[in-house]
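Notes continue from the previous slide.

Worked example: a multi-chain complex. Inputs as given:
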Amino acid sequence: MNGFHFKNNQWMADGVALSKIADKVGTPAYVYSLSAFEDRFKEIDQAYRSVPHLVAYSLKANGNLSVVNALAKLGCGADVVSGGELFKARSAGVPASKIIFAGVGKTDEEIAYALHEGIRYFNVESIPEILAINEVAARMKKTAPIAIRFNPDVDPHTHHYITTGKKETKFGVFLGDVDKVIKVVRQSRSIQWTGVHAHIGSQMTQTAPVGRAAKVVEKLVLQLRKEGFPIHTVNLGGGYGIDYKGEKPPKASQYAALVLPVIKRLNATLVLEPGRFISGNSGVLLSKVTYVKQSGSKTFYILDSGMGELIRPSLYEAYHRIAPAQGPQAPKQVVDVVGPICESGDFFAKGRKLPLMKRGDLVVVFSAGAYGSVMGSTYNARPLPPEVVVRGSRFAVARERQTWEDLVQNERIVV
Ligand code: LLP
């Protein structure tokens, strides 16, 4: 069985009991099911098989090299937003021809590195960026392929922190500026404009906004082709939501039903940048109860991990399912699940009904495969946890736990 399931009174990752991983590796630890990642990739890939397409997995969600390598072996590409992510994608074996470089703040050094590698194209977010890419490409005597990200002003109906396609956000070029963009691209000799990009938000749980964005893009592509630009790539970003707490997110095929007709009418190549859809429920954070603390009428489960390992609850009040790794699962008491960090915002759940637990019990925090480890910090000088990958009945440490020595290795006492 793939992914995480409860069997013989304990939570398993594929064929391995999480308690076995904790015994060997300690806690906290991230645990990833490689086959879960692969199955989710295949679901999207299959949904779009009737058109030329590239699934460019968004490394920002989870850039673990073993994970990215497993996806690359299935033909998956990469969506990167920094020189570091580009380096990671290449280190994981993603061919440059399947890498797309996005982000609002690419530096000249990052642009030069991407051109040197020969990536598929840049997703460009502003007119100053067009000018910068043109300049760097000219200096390197290269032509830079670009897709321009337009802001379709579509509300994805998700958390406002992860809404990106409304006109008041910093992302993409304002649709009303298309004429200005055309003028700038015409004057930029080292740019080749071949694609249009739109990404409207993350953790979407409805298909309609994607359909609306696809329609806006279709109109734009037709307009640009009339202007003489050979636009053959339509990039509709990522954003497909997952089940955190019982949402019923659409299947990939339900998005495809809205997108495919547009791509077929345009006779274009589709690029998608899913992150969370592939990774979110393919990983968990494995932790341990350090103390059960009673304070007046309140009960706290204080874990050995917190906002340094998984910041989503603190940052977005995000909901993550939590369960004991072993034993009875029936909810018995209302508790706050908190971390060891000196911030009152350091919590995983407040007022959650959970089974009785005691010091030393193992805890699973679910849906931690996306925007978990990648957003980790060492605040309070707490080393980053290891990342463990599971394949069937085997598991291995794919990223080592940091040590206290690691925390000081780049420092020196200079006065
Ligand atoms: N493409 C672009 C241009 C993006 O900005 C993003 C995510 C993606 C693709 C991938 O989106 P996904 O398929 O994973 O929804 N830290 C937040 C999420 C931030 C999303 C940023 N952009 C969270 O933990 O919910």
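Summary box: Residues 58, 60-61, 79, 102, 162, 164, 199, 202-203, 237-240, 273-277, 312, 370-371 surround LLP (CB under 6 Å). The chain has two domains: 4-32+280-408, 34-279.
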